Amino acid sequence: MRLSKRSAVLVATGLSGAMVLSACGGGDDDGGTGAAGGDGGSFSVYIGEPENPLVPGNTNETEGGQIVDSLFTRLVQYDVETNEAVFTGVAESIESEDQQTWTVNLKEGWTFHDGTPVTAQSFVDAWNYTAYSPNAQGNSYFFSNIAGYDQLQAPTDDAGNVTGEPAATEMSGLRVIDDRTFEVELTSPYAQWPTTTGYTAFAPLPEAFFEDPEGFGEQPIGNGPFQAEEALVPGQGITLTRYDDYAGETEGNADSVEYRIYTEQNTAYTDLQAGNVDIVDQLPPEVIASAEGEFGDRYLETAQGDITSLGFPTYDQRFADPNVRKAFSMAIDRQAISDAIFNGTRTPATSYISPVVDGFREDACQVCELNAEEANRLLDEAGFDRSQPVDLWFNAGAGHDAWMEAIGNQIRENLGVDYNLQGNLDFSEYLPLQDAQGMTGPFRSGWIMDYPVAENFLGPLYSTAAIPPAGSNVTFYSNPEFDQAIAEGNSAESNDAAIEAYQNAEDILLEDFPAAPLFYRLNQGAHSENVDNVIIDAFGRVRVADVQVVG
């Protein structure tokens, strides 16, 4: 999921011939009510402006994702301690004999916030809508391994222009058996597929969505622990109320949660200090050194399954040569930036894959270390015009100014190339410009894992199928060999074989280098005295159902 601002352990993704997810419960044994205080009350959470209306199939960034995750529950959820997929969601079981055709059985009693039942059809209709290319849903890519997905994609010419209508409106690989059962046929075996279904894109949709998709995006009707009894107000936010008929294991402790939109992270932090907002899930870099002393046990520092990268517009002739991209990477002293700006809380990245998932290699990226001499040699070899400055892009108001400027200064010092900072766009404007090939130079790119599998740091960001509007490949990189390696990993019969294929895919990326891995991070957040039991998980989500109001 594309990161704008925002606890992880090593994830083991064991595979077997007939994979069945563990049916054990997730999270705290007491459902998140073990802290002092009781049910009820209201609290507020800082977010930035969501990019799109609040529709699961078109929400692939952190701001809207935080709200959508409060409103919708998918087939599986992820245990807060282990990050493993567990059956605390809508699915009773997800089973397969061959890892290619999966039978999904749903639990009884689940309803949407309008009182209508959550059925197998609710999932099938939602997934077909998201996959159908004329609907231009940003999460369409996540269904590309279901049989018949290609028939839902409109034909295009060599330039990428749409030349007709899709051949079908429904994927042949989705079949409703009865109200509580449906089958999913994949294009090839994928033992880890059940784990992916905890991601936002896989949420069900009620019939009301299809009657008015636009109105639904403003005031969604979900099946999660909180409901929207009012519409989102752009620039202000939305208040959600507890859904008392929620069928999941962790009901909301509070009566309501207010998502409050800020354009500036520093303003949110000042409000936190004054007690005017209760949870800020990512602190400005300049306060990290002092925040623990100020907030004490209300200061939160947790590992996160993410990566920050410097993306390159491969569609721009100036950055079309991989050697240019590698040169810029080797001009950056990642550790110096971490120490000077982030108080040492950013770990220099050495792989496209996060350390929190199986498949990470700590020495994969040889051009992720400072080497000014080699960087200059590559830049000269590529014939790069050093007389023209480069644009460095990042979204405004989220604490990126200082470290992006530091990168610019290092590029100027080590490569003799000047720079212009392009950091005036809000996040909701920045992402669409990326999708429209509007980056005129290297750009800040952040990613939080959607599901705990190495593939999630590769396929959604760099595969051909994930080129916008179908996904988040905003470098617009495309290499059939990389796509094939990802497919081989997805269809592997063992975890070791899958990891080997994903690492082969990463080796191709490291050669082509569409983006420069920069940092993995410890996330710093804090909360007011009004709340307790605040958990920020490995996916960058505040677990709002667990939060207790104590003030």
Protein described:
This protein has 551 residues and is α+β, with helices and mostly antiparallel strands. Helix content is 25%, strand content 18%. The strands form 6 sheets. Strands 11, 12, 13, 14, 17 and 18 form a 6-stranded antiparallel β-sheet that branches. It has a 4-stranded mixed β-sheet with strand order 1-10-9-8, with helices on one face. Helix 11 links the parallel strand 15 and strand 16 (419-425). Helix 8 (322-330) runs antiparallel to helix 10 and helix 14 (480-490) runs antiparallel to helix 15.
Task: Please give the count of helices.
Answer: 15
Mean pLDDT: 91
State the name of the first-level CATH class of one domain.
Answer: Alpha Beta
Question: Largest sheet, described in full?
Answer: 6 strands, antiparallel
CATH topology of one domain: Dipeptide-binding Protein, domain 3
Low-confidence stretches: 4-38
How much of the sequence lies in strands comes to 15-25%
Fraction of residues in H or I helices: 25-40%
Give the total of beta strands. Answer: 20
Q: What is the radius of gyration computed over CA atoms, rounded to a whole number of angstroms?
A: 23 Å
CATH superfamily of one domain: Dipeptide-binding Protein, Domain 3
The backbone outline, from C-alpha atoms, is globular
Structural class: alpha+beta
Distance between the termini: 33 Å
CATH architecture of one domain: Roll
